[in-house]
Amino acid sequence: MPGKTELLKWVWAGTIIVFAVGLVAITFIKELSPTYCFDNYYQLFVILMLLAFFAEYIDSSLGMGYGTTLTPLLIIVGFQPLQVVTALLFSEFISGITAGILHHKADNVDFIRDTKSRKVMLLMASCSIAGTLLAVTVALNLPKFYVRLYIGLMILAIGVFLILKSRTNYLFSWKRITVIGLLAAFNKGISGGGYGPLLTSGQLLSGIKEKNAVAITSMAEGLVCFVAVIIYLLSGTEFDWKLTIPLTLGAFISVPGAVLTVKIIPANFIRGQIAYVTLFLGILMVAKTILL
After folding, report:
1. pTM for the model
2. Longest C-alpha distance within the chain, in Å?
């Protein structure tokens, strides 16, 4: 088992590095963007599936990275914001709920017997309502530049703090959990991203264990996205299924492997990866905001 664990750690770390390098390249080099390289829809279908697969693998194993990376990326390469937001919400609803259930079955979390984990997950999902309402008001009155810069700087700061305090064990705090839930939902409402990095890393700062934090984030985000999808459908918004289907399939297929990764890899290794990926996403969001 130790040999397999070490191998999986290297594979996981390698996947994160490859995804990070590819993400930077696709973001800043126009000729590498999916819509620029592929005119045939079936080719684009496969590329979108692969993007969603890797993004959701990272998301379901670290509790972050799907919406935060794909929302700005898909908009940058030519898709309209409403197309992207609705497609990502639907795919995150399917993959998030699936990941939450599989994390529970794999004993990464116990939503039935572990009362605290269940309450934290439900609190995170409930906070989304208040946070999103506030976000809509702010989003209508603030330029997008400052909104994205705020989210990027907040995530970057948390990443730095987690790295500096990597060996610190925090006592559980309902007050901190509530504040983190509201801020994460606020981020989601105004930009479509910034939910997972803040919610997962914020749970660590609030005393939640690493594997529990990843599983709670997956389930809470799935429930939040489900509510959002229902609201969009009731409002008559049309979903772009040519974008939604490949993203949903790619994300869904990646979930079992991500859950197995969390089950096998040591918790302290997961904590370190969460810190560095949070820092990376913060830097990337700030760079996108300022340079693009």
Report:
1. 0.78
2. 54
